[in-house]
Amino acid sequence: MRKLTVCLLPVLQIALLAAFLLPDTIWAKESLPDFAELSKRLKPSVVNISTAKTLKPRQQFQRPFGSPYSNDPLEEFLNNFLGNMHQRAYKQRSLGSGFIIEGGYIITNSHVVAGADEIKIKLADNREFKAEIKGFDERLDLALLKIDAKETLPIAKLGDSDSIQVGEWVMAIGNPFGLAETVTVGIVSAKGRVIGSGPYDDYIQTDASINPGNSGGPLFNTLGEVVGINTAIISGGQGIGFAIPINMAKSIIPQLKEKGKVTRGWLGVIIQSVTPDLAKSFGLKNEKGALISGIIPGSPAEKAGLKAGDIVLGFDGKTINEVNELSRFVAATAVGKKVTLKIVRDRKEEKVNVTIEQLKDTGEDDPEESIHDKLGLTVRELNDELRAQYQIKDTSGVLVTSLKSGGLAQEAGITEGDVIKEIRGGKIATLKDYEKAVAAHKKGEIIRFLIKRGNSSLYVTAMFD
Question: Which one is catalytic: 45, 50, 111, 202?
Fold first, then answer.
């Protein structure tokens, strides 16, 4: 044994020397996934989706109150030569992607098939099927389709999006610009991205090329498992795409199959991010958590005794790091379940038990969405320190301390240092007045602010989308 060991030493030394001397590119190539094998194996489970939507013709030209003459030549001319251009119904067509799961079901984005009169599915082997919508969820931008095929269909295996890490290789397959079976590769650039599409934003960001037509298609890991659903791109951006984590889809697919829609939990709070200044003012060590700035009357939150000013640090055993996490956790909670919230109130940690109720399908934004984040401003109640810092003489009102670039408040003309005195004609003397007024907003409503800027007062308006 000793002689054999001695004989092997030179071989080991040569191997180690080769590891240092051989070019790095050789070793790097050996560590890359076999993309050729992956694409060959995975493409059959990816489908192209084409839709047609019939658009109704526009009405003929008419004067606002009708013509006073029975044979107005101007009206006749406009009807004949302008109105008739749009008299015939026509079909608007669009393309997208999707992937097959068990039972002949296909997952895609809801915006790919929304309002479609016809939906056609084309497989990689050129077989075509008509599809029907079994369920959709606009809030998460997901749709579940169904096709009837006698033959066995190739199925995409669903993975675990929670386990992927930034820097991992991923592959996107889809139908960008109508170019079928296009394969692009890249890495996971980031996780948990919030891009402002809704209260449940939790996107996977990737630099795998994603373009119009990729929507609804799968994002695979190197094991050939779907970890995301390609959904969004940034207008004018390159090398940046966003995918819905597959775990979010897996949690609602059973509901889409059974009921065609999704039932979500509801807490009934208005929340906002914890900024560094707010964290300091509430005695927090960091900016984690969700700050409750308003309570919906009659909601589970009100029944449980939650208050404006409470900071939620935990929900049902899960830690709340970012404000949007609370919205997602609440939505995914079963209706009727009693959960425990970990909060900070008056600089002390407490636990509050609350029974989750059902979010009503009103078509409006979820109450848990951050209304303050939509306005895009941070306010603080006036005190002696702030009055001295901003050279303000007012003794009541709330001070605008920061604004989000491109936010509704900035677009309305509000600037840092403004003091909000009224909202919708109601006096704003304290932070509580402000929170109550903003929480009472309605979708599409124009909110009128009276602000004090220096020695001048002016009205500005902002409208919630």
Answer: 111
Is 215 marked active-site?
Answer: yes
Query: Which of 98, 125, 146 is the C-terminal boundary of a domain?
Result: 146
Clarify whether residues 357 and 270 are in a common domain. yes
* Number of compact structural domains in the chain: 4
pLDDT at residue 105, rounded to an integer: 96
Q: Are 344 and 386 contained in the same domain?
A: no
| Residue 2 covered by a domain | no
Burial (CB count within 10 angstroms: exposed 0-12, middle 13-18, buried 19+), residue 194: middle
* Nearest alpha carbon to residue 295 among 417, 436, 127, 154: 436
Closest CA to 372 of 300, 453, 292, 258: 292
Q: pLDDT digit string (tens) for 43-76?
A: 999 999 999 887 665 444 443 333 333 455 555 6
Q: Give yes or no: residues 441 and 457 share one domain.
A: yes
pTM (two decimals): 0.67
In a domain, 69, yes or no: no
Residue 458 maps to which CATH number? 2.30.42.10
Please tell me the distance from the alpha carbon of residue 214 to that of residue 118, in angstroms, as a whole number: 19
Rounded Cα distance between 95 and 176, Å, is: 8
Residues making up the chain, counted from first to last: 465
Catalytic residue among 137, 141, 202, 433: 141
The CATH number covering residue 208 comes to 2.40.10.10
Tell whether 36 is covered by a domain.
no
Considering only CA atoms, which of 325, 307, 133 is closest in space to residue 245? Answer: 325
Active-site residue (options: 215, 273, 327, 370): 215
Annotation marks residue 141 as catalytic? yes
- pLDDT tens by residue, 166-218: 999 999 999 998 898 999 999 999 998 877 666 788 899 999 999 889 999 99
- C-beta of residue 432 within 8 angstroms of C-beta of residue 292: no
**In this predicted structure, what is the pLDDT of residue 354?**
97
Of the residues 114, 146, 178, the one at which a domain ends:
146
